[in-house]
Write a structure and sequence with these properties.
By secondary structure, this protein is an all-alpha fold. Helix content is 70%, strand content 0%. The protein contains nine helices and no strands. The radius of gyration is 21 Å and the shape is globular. The termini are far apart.
Length: 209
């Protein structure tokens, strides 16, 4: 028997299957994001995620092998959203302060202003920290590295060790965000000011309490 001919009908069926797969995956990610935000990675289970969808329980395993994999996918999805915000700011910076302030402000406001993202951060600090160097967040890290290199090339940033600079900026922003989200209310503007002044001038430039 030869291959079945590809017709408009078979193409339409294939298209519907792909659309259904995309919709099912999106529904699982949305449910997981909500569950992890509400009860955290440690307390959450696959059943908790499935219960937030209209899907059969076995459907989950067509898309993700376990809770860890879907958690990483949720974090990667958030990373993509954060990257889209970054593209509007730091790439246009003309000075070092503009670059650093833009990077910090976008990150802190992204974490603090969406209630679900804020809850996700508050309930998942340790597991998110474990993912920082994993492939799922590589695009975010590479984009920062590329933007720093471009800023140095156009004179907006001094020509310093890129790897050290990116590590310092990333570390300060992440760890300050952990403290920021532990406070009520979270203060993204205050965190931005602190991080920017610290990066620009060290302790002597920090705002006094």
């Amino acid at each position: 028997m030869g291959d079945q001919p590809i017709t408009a009908e078979t193409g339409e069926r294939s298209g519907r299957r792909e659309q259904n797969k995309a919709e099912n995956r999106a529904a699982l990610l949305k449910a997981a994001r909500t569950v992890f935000s509400e009860i955290g990675y440690g307390a959450a289970g696959v059943r908790d995620i499935i219960r937030r969808t209209d899907l059969a329980s076995g459907t989950f395993y067509n898309y993700f092998k376990d809770k860890t994999e879907i958690f990483e996918a949720v974090v990667a999805e958030m990373g993509g959203e954060l990257l889209a915000h970054h593209r509007k700011g730091r790439a246009k910076a003309h000075t070092a302060e503009e670059f650093i302030r833009s990077h910090c402000s976008v990150y802190f406001h992204f974490v603090a202003e969406d209630p679900e993202v804020l809850a996700f951060g508050r309930n998942n600090v340790a597991p998110v920290r474990m993912l920082i160097d994993k492939p799922n967040l590589r695009d975010l890290a590479q984009a920062l590295h590329d933007d720093v290199r471009a800023a140095m090339a156009r004179g907006a940033l001094p020509d310093v060790d890129i790897t050290y600079f990116v590590a310092a900026l990333s570390g300060i922003v992440f760890e300050l965000s952990v403290i920021m989200i532990s406070r009520n209310p979270a203060d993204p503007d205050g965190a931005t000011e602190f991080a920017t002044r610290l990066m620009m001038g060290g302790l002597d430039k920090l705002p006094r309490r």
